[in-house]
Amino acid sequence: MPPAHLIGRAALVLRALSAAGEPGASTSDVSRLTGLARPTVHRLLAALADEGFVDRDQRSGRWYLGPELYLLGESAAARYDVTQHARASVHRLAAATGESAFFSARRGDETVCLLREDGDFPIRSFVLYEGARFPLGVVSAGLVVLSLLSDREIDDYLARVDLTERWGAAHAPGPLRERIAETRERGYAVNPGLVVEGSWGMAAAVFGSSGEPAWALTLTGVESRFREPRRAQLGALLLKEAHALTTALRADRQHGGL
């Protein structure tokens, strides 16, 4: 197996364990989540365990992310951890709106939720949670990031990714391009219950040093809380916080913090 192919499979296994969270995952679970054959998964897990990247509970036989990843993460955090800045924005959004607020990062063709804080409104949406991954174009964070890529990048993505098999006809290229155009016009994305009926989301992009949409701030809640004119008010608040966070991250990078 070529080294690059092997690394890609190991990354799939590590991401599957990350998604499993505290309950951990059996070898069969990891096989199902990755689509890899069980013997292949077992070999990869054993090799990763030898290096400390995964750990196994000897009683249950379930696998977890290992201590070596924690140490590597500590080293990487000095350059890549933006959550120290984002946490304040997420808190302000939750406090001001009463909804659930989130911060997500783009990772290749996906967005990954890094932070969540719930406001004081008692009804919650649980589509997003810390560690949740969605393809670009799915949920409001993925839609706003995709919408603000270049036309060439969007065309390339839609040509090689089929979102309809899992996410339905609303995520076919035609309807998705319509939402991309609407998002570009407004400046923020709206997901009108396309993932879970009645659960709405809105998101604004946070930009990296090169002007690329690298992160997103999101608000989610029940449909009745996202009607006009409140939707326009929430959009304006998201854009304000996204702009402030983009500015803060750029200033920190200029001073060597990121």
Automatic annotation (TrEMBL):
InterPro entries attached to this UniProt entry: GAF-like_dom_sf, HTH_MetabolicPath_Reg, Tscrpt_reg_IclR_C, Tscrpt_reg_IclR_N, WH-like_DNA-bd_sf, WH_DNA-bd_sf
Lineage top rank: taxon: Bacteria
GO BP field: negative regulation of DNA-templated transcription
Record's keyword terms, sorted: DNA-binding, Transcription, Transcription regulation
Coiled coil region boundaries: none
A Pfam family that the UniProt record links to this protein: HTH_IclR
GO molecular function terms attached to this record: DNA binding; DNA-binding transcription factor activity
Keyword Transcription regulation found: yes
Domain IclR-ED: 68-251
Domain HTH iclR-type span(s) in chain numbering: 4-67
Gene3D superfamilies: 3.30.450.40, Winged helix-like DNA-binding domain superfamily/Winged helix DNA-binding domain (1.10.10.10)
PANTHER family hit by this protein: HELIX-TURN-HELIX TRANSCRIPTIONAL REGULATOR, ICLR FAMILY, TRANSCRIPTIONAL REGULATORY PROTEIN
The protein's name: Transcriptional regulator
